[in-house]
From TrEMBL:
<keyword id="KW-0479">Metal-binding</keyword>
<comment type="similarity">
    <text>Belongs to the fluoride channel Fluc/FEX (TC 1.A.43) family.</text>
</comment>
<keyword id="KW-0813">Transport</keyword>
<feature type="transmembrane region" description="Helical">
    <location>
        <begin position="63"/>
        <end position="88"/>
    </location>
</feature>
<feature type="binding site">
    <location>
        <position position="71"/>
    </location>
    <ligand>
        <name>Na(+)</name>
    </ligand>
</feature>
<keyword id="KW-0406">Ion transport</keyword>
<feature type="binding site">
    <location>
        <position position="74"/>
    </location>
    <ligand>
        <name>Na(+)</name>
    </ligand>
</feature>
<keyword id="KW-1133">Transmembrane helix</keyword>
<keyword id="KW-0472">Membrane</keyword>
<dbReference type="InterPro" id="IPR003691">
    <property type="entry name" value="FluC"/>
</dbReference>
<feature type="transmembrane region" description="Helical">
    <location>
        <begin position="94"/>
        <end position="113"/>
    </location>
</feature>
<keyword id="KW-0812">Transmembrane</keyword>
<dbReference type="Pfam" id="PF02537">
    <property type="entry name" value="CRCB"/>
</dbReference>
<feature type="transmembrane region" description="Helical">
    <location>
        <begin position="32"/>
        <end position="51"/>
    </location>
</feature>
<comment type="function">
    <text>Fluoride-specific ion channel. Important for reducing fluoride concentration in the cell, thus reducing its toxicity.</text>
</comment>
<protein>
    <recommendedName>
        <fullName>Fluoride-specific ion channel FluC</fullName>
    </recommendedName>
</protein>
<keyword id="KW-0407">Ion channel</keyword>
Length: 122
């Protein structure tokens, strides 16, 4: 059972990481502003919120989609590096990037959980 889950996460992470790279290639950064990373993290937070309400935490599907694909798709490390690099050029813009990522990320996760909740369930 553990080996299967490890393989599910590895496979999902490969898919998610490739998808993140594809998005980064499609969405050019706005100057020094890491627009692709912001977009990926917000979409990922929304989808993780939906998964959190739709799938039991112990299911293989949630492990594959949530921990694997979306874990590989979203990226805290790129967010942190992008913020530090942006800080060197524009501290104000870097602060805005950090605030936007955190605030909108939490809002996207909350929205995802509301969207994911089944009708009639509160």
């Amino acid at each position: 059972m553990t080996l299967r889950r490890l393989l599910l996460v590895a496979l999902g992470g490969t898919v998610g990481t490739a998808a993140r790279l594809a998005i980064a290639l499609l969405i050019p950064d706005a100057g020094a502003f890491p627009l692709a990373t912001l977009a990926v993290n917000l979409v990922g937070a929304l989808l993780i919120g939906i998964l959190a309400t739709r799938l039991p935490g112990s299911s293989d599907t949630r492990v594959f989609l949530g921990t694997g694909i979306l874990g590989g798709f979203t990226t805290y490390s790129a967010f942190a590096v992008g913020a530090v690099q942006l800080w060197a050029q524009s501290p104000l813009l870097a602060g805005l990037y950090v605030i936007l990522t955190l605030t909108l990320g939490v809002a996207a996760a909350v929205l995802g959980m509301r969207v994911g909740r089944r009708r009639g369930t509160r």
